[in-house]
Write a structure and sequence with these properties.
heterodimer; A: about 500 residues; alpha/beta; Rossmann fold; 3 domains; 6-stranded mixed β-sheet; 17 helices; about 30% helix; about 25% strand; B: about 375 residues
Chain lengths: ~500, ~375
């Protein structure tokens, strides 16, 4: 082990952004044909480090060596030439292209000026088969499952001759079964001599797949360990420097009183049924979770509930009143709160001061307005309260929302919805992309609001969060609520099989 | 303290750099055509600083200002009302005709004419609003077409229905004159030039627009819709209603553009009634950064440059040079605004990061 030379060696990498040191003297050594995990909270600096290695960012200091030679990347092109490839968290594939077209896009094989698809097709077959995951080069990308699309990304990178593969949070979009398959592929690749750098914050997965693990915290590489030497708990403590929180709720607070009732809700998009026959009730003090792979109708369900999309059939009752035809504003005034999944796209006015963001969605009620007038004083006071109670790290209510970190933006959104004491809160991915500390804070707020009688619809990709927080849990698949499970007994694997349609439930 | 001050200073860079650049580029053009820029600008300043020039500058700035307000209110929510031109011309014609057709006590008469103008402007703009909401027609396309239609309709109505009978050899096509009760006497006469009273109404209008955009719930929804339409919608602002309402308000303000000239000078709609103010309003709103105070300054600068440039003809310098000056002002404001916005944003992010770090350290210290 010791006599082997590292394939990739980062020494003293430092990178500062205005006001933030993203990487501070980071050292990292990755050996040939190993799977090296880089773990850390969001914002710890792992993405910055990988962007530097992939030539997307230039470090302020430090050196990068590939196979012992010092390299300087001016762009990803240089990194690719050095044999480094990156699979991004969000796929960069053209949906209407075939696998073949997507793979060759950007490095089109030419022979005598014409595209050489025959050669490329053979090469893709060969690449995908030797790694135990055959891909049909002629299928259209939009017909592929998420896991298959990811394989297309991987093949695309290999096609360009990469020997060092960076995978950025590859499992965040996959269900458990697909994760298993990805891991099989990665082991296969390793067997063929490919070096893999695996970025993640899911510790059990890292412990399963990695040969070595480097933990990044606050821009420092705090430790490099072997998976056999640590437990998940110890890794977590390295990551956050303190104890890892769990999303568990305590004793049930569910009451008999139904505050949100959905009957036969259906939505069609361009004639296609994307949500069908959705039936569920949420009681005071109850958290109802919806598990599902993204794109199975969750978005349309949320939009129909919020009045952002007209349902084609069905009834929505809020506290016993039929609100199916109500506009969004009336629903909000009637006690419906909303934490959108796209924090910046739907939840914030980024260039505006925090006090204007706090009143977003509450602009018609006290203390944010009086009659037709905006009440600036009231909005300021309420924002100051929110900053204190929800521990938003910011200079004050006049700061622009864009100056806040993701976690603090989310705390502001959660706080703003909670502080208005809604009857029902629709929370879509409330802890996505925020660090463990902020995540724990959000979970605590949700628990407290539940105890105070809030009815909450929780839509999340985090199965642990769903199982831990929900009183009742549904699985959505292809627009239908296909299963109702007991979160106290269900396992992530069971959920996963419902989510992929591998299992049909009768318990609903 | 100094941080906020630094940000204010940065913003001041926008107009200063624009004016400096504009005169710099114009000087180069003057040198290129063999003129002496220093003597040209000196005579412009001498002429432009005369009392009557200043009064005339204000009179000409008023319609520009109102046009700027009309455009800005749409811009605030990313709604491009290019149709201000057609809205005010149709409004001026119909309100002039209506004003000549009725007899009312003085203040009521003026108010009546303004109401008609606002209703016509709002109605014409409302067509574009309805088309956008109901049929998804982009307002830029519909308002440009409505401008052409307004030009045709105005000419047709004036020539066929609303003109007063020709007297003797008079050639000018005009509506019947509005009686004295529907006119506004000058506020003052300075250096032989009448300062029109409508300037007071324009100032009040500016205050109203400011209050509407920055102090009311409607204005909040309007700005939110401009900054992030999806977030505004999720917060309960009905996008269709916002589009329609904003278009109506923008059109109503546009209807008032011609009122200063109507009440204070023409007293009728004539073929030589000022045109093109709607398009100038777009430039003025842009340069004024959609803020009533900024628009006022921009309107004054544009109006003054126009007035002062008149002397250039007497000096033998082509006064078209001034069009270049105005163009450069517009361009450099737009560019400088973007540059400064980024600088300010970076500064804010930095301030917030520093402050946050301090807060966190304090919290850790308390915890320990």
């Amino acid at each position: 082990m010791a006599e082997r030379a590292p394939t990739v060696e980062l020494k003293g990498i430092t990178k500062t952004f205005p006001g933030v040191v993203a990487n501070d003297d980071v050292n990292l050594a990755v050996f040939p044909a190993e799977i090296h995990a880089v773990v850390g909270e969001n914002g710890a600096g792992k993405s910055t480090l990988m962007k530097i290695l992939y030539g997307m960012l230039r470090p302020d200091g430090g050196t990068i060596r590939v196979d012992g030679r010092v390299v300087r990347f001016r762009s990803p092109k240089d990194a690719i030439a050095a044999g480094i490839g990156m699979v991004h968290q969000h796929f960069m594939l053209a949906a209407n292209f075939t696998v073949l077209e997507n793979v060759v896009l950007g490095s089109e094989p030419a022979r005598a000026g014409a595209l050489d698809f025959v050669g490329a097709r053979a090469r893709i077959r060969e690449l995908s088969e030797t790694h135990g995951a055959p891909l049909d080069p002629d299928r259209v990308t939009e017909d592929l499952a998420v896991g298959e699309r990811q394989r297309v990304e991987i093949v695309k990178v290999l096609y360009r001759g990469a020997r060092i593969l960076i995978l950025d949070e590859p499992t965040s979009v996959l269900v458990p079964q697909e994760v298993e398959e990805l891991f099989r592929n990665l082991r296969e690749l390793k067997g063929h001599g490919v070096t893999i750098i695996f970025i993640s914050h899911k510790l059990d997965e890292v412990l399963e797949i990695a040969d070595s693990i480097t933990v990044v915290r606050d821009g420092h590489a705090v430790a490099t360990v072997k998976p056999e030497d640590v437990t998940a708990r110890q890794l977590a403590e390295l990551m956050v420097g303190s104890e890892l929180p769990t999303p568990e709720t305590r004793e049930s607070t569910v009451t008999e009183e139904v505050v949100l009732s959905v009957r036969g809700l259906g939505v069609r998009v361009e004639g296609r049924r994307v949500l069908e026959e959705a039936n569920f009730d949420i009681h005071r003090g109850e958290i109802v979770g919806i598990a599902g792979v993204e794109g199975n109708g969750q978005r349309q369900l949320v939009e129909a509930l919020m009045g952002l999309r007209k349902p084609d059939e069905g009834i929505i009752e809020l506290a016993g009143v039929d609100v199916t035809l109500w506009p969004t504003r009336a629903r909000r005034e009637g006690g419906l709160g909303y934490i959108p999944e796209d924090r910046q796209g739907r939840g914030l006015l980024l260039p505006s001061p925090l006090w204007e963001n706090t009143m977003l969605g509450h602009q018609t009620i006290d203390p944010f307005s009086r009659g037709p007038w905006v009440n600036r004083g009231g909005a300021h006071r309420r924002t100051e309260e929110l900053i204190r109670e929800y521990n938003v790290m910011t200079p004050g209510p006049d700061t622009s929302a864009l100056a806040l970190s993701g976690g603090n933006q989310q705390k502001l959104i959660v706080g703003r919805e909670m502080i208005a004491e809604p009857k029902v809160l629709i929370a879509a991915q409330p802890t996505r992309g925020i660090d463990v500390g902020a995540q724990a804070a959000v979970w605590e707020q949700i628990r407290r609001a539940r105890a105070a009688g809030l009815a909450l619809l929780l839509i999340s990709a985090d199965l642990e969060e769903l199982i831990g927080l929900s009183d009742t849990l549904y699985v959505i698949f292809r627009g239908r609520l296909v299963a109702k499970v007991d979160p106290a007994t269900v396992t992530p694997e069971e959920l996963g099989s419902y989510m992929t349609g591998a299992r049909e439930a009768a318990s609903a | 303290m100094s941080k906020r001050f630094r940000i204010r200073l940065l913003w001041l860079l926008v107009p200063v750099s624009a004016v400096v650049l504009a005169f710099g580029v114009s000087s180069l053009v003057l040198i290129a055509i063999g003129e002496n820029p220093i003597s040209a600008f000196r005579s412009m300043f001498r002429y432009g600083s005369q009392q009557n020039s200043l009064v005339s500058t204000v009179n000409r700035a008023v319609p520009l200002y109102v046009a700027g307000l009309a455009v800005a209110i749409g811009f605030k929510m990313n709604l491009f009302n290019i149709g201000v031109e057609g809205q005010y011309r149709l409004a001026a014609l119909l309100s002039a005709a209506a004003g000549a057709a009725v007899v009312l006590p003085a203040p009521l008469h003026v108010a009546f004419i303004m109401l008609v103008a606002m209703a016509v402007g709002a109605g014409w703009a409302g067509i574009a609003g309805v088309l956008k909401v109901k049929r998804g027609v982009h307002e830029v396309v519909s308002t440009i077409m409505l401008n052409s239609i307004a030009t045709g309709v105005t000419a047709y109505l004036l020539a066929n229905y609303l003109r007063k009978p020709r007297v003797g050899s008079e050639l000018l096509l005009a509506t019947h004159p509005i009686p004295a009760s529907g006119q506004l006497p000058p506020l003052a006469v300075i250096g032989g030039e009448e300062l029109r009273s409508f300037v007071l109404i324009a100032v009040a209008l500016g205050v109203l627009v400011y209050v509407l955009i920055w102090r009311t719930r409607f204005g909040y929804d309007l700005r939110a819709s401009g900054i992030n339409p999806d977030a505004a919608r999720a917060s309960g602002a009905d996008p269709n209603r916002m589009i329609l309402t904003t278009m109506l308000i923008s059109g109503a303000i546009a209807g008032l553009i011609g009122m200063g000239d109507l009440f204070g000078f023409f007293h009728a709609y004539t073929l030589d009634f000022p045109v093109g103010l709607g398009f100038d309003g777009i430039a003025v709103a842009l340069v004024g950064l959609n803020h009533p105070v900024g628009i006022a300054i921009a309107a004054m600068v544009f109006s003054w440059v126009d007035r002062a440039a008149q002397i250039l003809d007497l000096e033998g310098v082509p006064k078209e040079v001034i069009i270049i000056t105005k163009g450069v002002i517009i361009l450099s404001v737009v560019i400088a605004y973007e540059v400064v916005r980024r600088l300010v944003q970076a500064q804010e992010v930095k301030n917030a990061a520093e402050e946050t770090r301090r807060l966190e350290e304090r919290e850790e210290a308390v915890a320990a």
